[in-house]
Give the backbone structure.
Amino acid sequence: MMDILIKNLPILVVLCPLMTSLLVVLIPNIIFSWGLTTLSTFLTFLFSILLYQEIQIHSYISYAIGKWIPPIGIEYIIDKVAIIPIIIISGISFIATIFAYKIMPEEIEKKSVSKVYSLWLLAVAGLIGLVTTGDAFNLFVFLEISSLASVALVAMGAQKNKQALVAAYNYLIIGAVGATLYVIGVGLLYGITGTLNMADLTNRINDLNNNKALIAGFGFMIIGIMVKAAVFPLHIWLPRAYAYAPSAVSVLLAATATKASLYILARILFSVFENSENLINNTLFFVILPLSIIAMFAGTIMAIYEKDIKRLLAHSSVAQIGYITLAFSIGTKASIAAGFIHMFNHAIIKGGLFIAITSIGFYIKKRVTINNLSGLGRAMPITFFCFVLCSLSLAGLPLTAGFISKLYLIKASISSDGIWIAILILISSALSVVYLWKMIEVLWMREAKKIVINENPKIYLSLIIITFLNIYFGLDASLVVNGSFEAAEKLIGDLK
Amino acid sequence: MHNNPILRISTKILFAPIILFGLYVQFHGDFGPGGGFQAGVIVASAFILYSLVFGIEEGKKLFPSNINLILLALGGIIYGGVGFVSMILGDEFLAYNILGSSPKSGQHIGILLVEFGVGLTVSNVMIALFNAFASYDRIKEK
């Protein structure tokens, strides 16, 4: 039995949430549907841990769906790169599901809760599928699964705030345009190479270096993925979607949704098109580098002026995505590793911040804006303490996970003669302290309102777990750092 | 439209043949043109026609929403289940060869079951979509 399990792990991480999402929709009871969702996300997480162990032995696993041999059939590929986003997505979705237990029935009417959980699992399955698949068209299918499920999830926020419908509509249209651009790119590449398998694609575009269709196809694919990854200025859908989605959903989306797309961006840039060096170097230097730097500042500055806390965190996500793409755009082994390190750390940081803010929203029964926060820090010490730790991690103070990512990012940019990039990163980090301090100041220093809040262990349990992760990976980052360096080495080889 | 005898009678006459045609397309799928998607839409069109002529309430009496939801999920579960069976028998996900005594019969059984799952889901999604859009105003009035 065990060998069957091990053999099928690459598909099981996708199938487990996908199939349980079909079962969950049939369970009307809120507790049971939550239980099944938790079980499913836990199993997915377990499978991805097993997969991690397998990867340490084999370093590359290819899985042919339906035994149709690739490149004809659909192939799932797990290697040292793919395992990082898989663990991020499955782990964070497990924590977010634990968190959803109390929060979800509060915001969603009873009869649709199980449907929301079904969509929730579908979104997780789509995101993991994006990472595992080695087929360019299959990737598009998962792109649609994950984004349609996320759109429906965002729209469920309409039961509390009608703005969610606008947010979901924006997300739907912009996301659909992104997916269309991607599929146009795939079509063009299929036209000139006759294959959809990514590994095969890499070999076949080898001798097509200056083909115009190749360049156009590459452009379409990259732009399409950049929309999904919310790279500035294609991030317009993101702040609203995160801000007006149901609270638990914003935790899930904020921590996982863009990670899978960022991974695909890295994969297309450094793996699929690895032989078109000129094209890639130009894209990195003239497109992704400037956009990332603008994103770092634009996101941070918008966050400073934002009053609504969920939107504030969403703007800050745009800036953080900027760091990740900036790391990719430098294009050395150390910098790509730094990108993956920050991808992991940002997931736990932003997950923690969103959990803290939505718990505050749960206790005060109001939309969380700066003015509503006055003095609440004293009323809810545990939540506040975790919130401060996650904020410090976001700002990049030593002994937190955020510090590790900033450290490697700055080291990588200095070692590739980009001192000015390192300076810009430092300035932007310093600016991020402004909005973090703004929240902490209001929470702690303002006069306390006389309200008594009994913090519920069912809510702060997940917050404590994720805060602990922030500290743990700040003290001992070897796991993440080694994994990321191995991933970067796999992506760009020993060339640079 | 239920006051119009021509529509009423012709719906009653057409209802069964539409479903029969749907089933023909469904099971013809593994030999020739056809398959789960097309058959699902054809079968759903019979129920949608019924709802159009006799009204959405009557349509829901004929085909209750909760059964609709169960069948909708069941189709996907059948699809996935076939894949799981071939995994448990020791092959890859959705590898049909192992399902029968010979690869040929295995492919036959596999594609038949998978297409059945597809047909079930597609027809029920069609009906669910129709019901969702058709009952929109009623929800609003309440």
The two ends of chain B are 24 Å apart (CA to CA). The interface with chain A takes residues 69-70, 73, 76-77, 80, 83-84, 87-88, 90-97 of chain B (CB under 8 Å).
